[in-house]
Amino acid sequence: MEFGIVELSRLQFAVTAMYHFLFVPLTLGLSILVAIMETVYVTTNRPIWRQMTKFWGTLFGINFAIGVATGLTMEFQFGMNWSYYSQYVGDIFGAPLAIEGLMAFFLEATFVGLFFFGWDKLSKVAHLCVAWLVAIGSNFSALWILIANGWMQNPVGAQFNPLTMRMEMTDFFAVLFNEVAQAKFVHTVSAGYVTASVFVIGVSAWFLLRGRHVELARRSITVGAAFGVAAAFSVVLLGDESGYNTSHSQKMKLAAIESMWDTHPAPAPFNLIGFPDQKARETHYAIKIPWVMGLIGTRSLDTQIPGINELVDKAQERIRSGQIAYKAMLEIRAKDGNVDPATETLFKDHSADLGFALLLKKYVDNPLDATDAQIKAAANDTVPQVWPLFWSFRIMVALGIGFIGTMIYFFYRASFRGMKFPRPALHLAVWMIPAPWIAAEMGWFVSEFGRQPWTVDGVLPTALSVSRLSITDVSLTLAGFVLFYTVLFIIEMSLMLKYIRKGPFQDVEETEAWTNRHTARLSGQPDGAAIAMPGE
């Protein structure tokens, strides 16, 4: 594959985005688990729960700090590598990102500081409120980012202005309550909760295998498994909701994920496995499960899901419709908007397909000069690479089913077998630690790669979104980002492993003594005058 400016820019953003997302799921989930542990500490006064809160809170802090550093570089890329995209849709895409920075990130960052440095300054209840505000801020931050991303998948609440050559927001609440964004948010945060649950169970299993911090590890597994059971089922159910939304907002993506070349009579089957052949447009050795795809995609038994070939034919129709909109747009711009109502009506009637006409710019400068062969080629470009999507989706689903089984098993052992766990299960839990990150990365790959060739689905082709940079410029910055992120990865892994091996900073007796001193200090009594807290 020959790498041009578009391919290098895409690769650079993919590297930075997928690396950044290594930290996001654990931040989302661990913030909630830490708040839950501190809630138990405040309500029971048992020092071991404070010990757990501080230990897992330290790992959260390391992950949060590195995650912030990796996330900041992504926003600079919109101006560096994707300047036309920023100019074209910045009025809509920029609003959620600005709100995220002003509301969620400031909230999160402020209370993270209070969480780590406020143990000796705040009462237990006040510190608990801080812990929950950190958790809320973390998840609220994800909401606004996913609203922005959801708009790229399903661009609602906006229209194109031919005079300014920009997309302009027409309905903020349509953007806010975009069904794709809302489904993506709950699916993503649920995946983060599963990630944190698997991480907590895996690290705790490592402690148990070495006979260290046994009481902390057993209780951590109990919390992680209980939280993880709900999260794992939520991921699957909300993934079904995402599939349903995709069936009417991104039909080509759904058809590519399922390697569905031809429209199947309703209800469509689900290809369990197979080997997609994009050149021949067929799937070899496919094993199908009847009805399943129709039920997931349409929630009915009589609604068809269009196949790739049918969608390519429709793309040709939309390209020709887009040419009409493009011609009307040129006339509106030439006359500075002073055109007859018929031209305005013509543009309005076909403006939804303008983006499809822009696909022709890959082949010809003026889309109106495109030949039938070029229109056909542009329509074929709307089909993403099928086999990576097909297998990435199935890896993600298989891992999701595995998480459900794992969480149910550990929840059962924690709740009904006295927190006794067989050693083979503990070894499995340790080896499973990377699995949720693999599933999360596969999910994002399906979401973003499946949208190609669009930056904003049906509105702006990726090939038109890039900045006018040289290949050398992008190659150097790509190499710089890879080097920078490699250093951060080494730092992250070193710190996480160091503090996991070190374990809790205090044992239960030291924690109980601190609790007594802290309570006495806040009440104005001499140290040691407070009533002793009940231990384990």
Automatic annotation (TrEMBL):
Q: Name one Pfam family in it.
A: Cyt_bd_oxida_I
- Is Ubl conjugation included in the keywords of this UniProt record? no
Question: Keywords, A to Z?
Answer: Cell inner membrane, Cell membrane, Electron transport, Heme, Iron, Membrane, Metal-binding, Transmembrane, Transmembrane helix, Transport
* Top-level lineage group: Bacteria
State the compartments where it is located: Cell inner membrane
Q: Name one GO biological process term.
A: aerobic electron transport chain
Its transmembrane ranges are 20-43, 55-74, 94-118, 125-147, 185-209, 221-239, 391-412, 424-446, 466-491
- List the InterPro entries: Cyt-d_ubiquinol_oxidase_su_1
Annotated family: Belongs to the cytochrome ubiquinol oxidase subunit 1 family.
Indicate what this protein is called per its UniProt record: Cytochrome d terminal oxidase subunit 1
Annotated organism of origin: Thioclava dalianensis
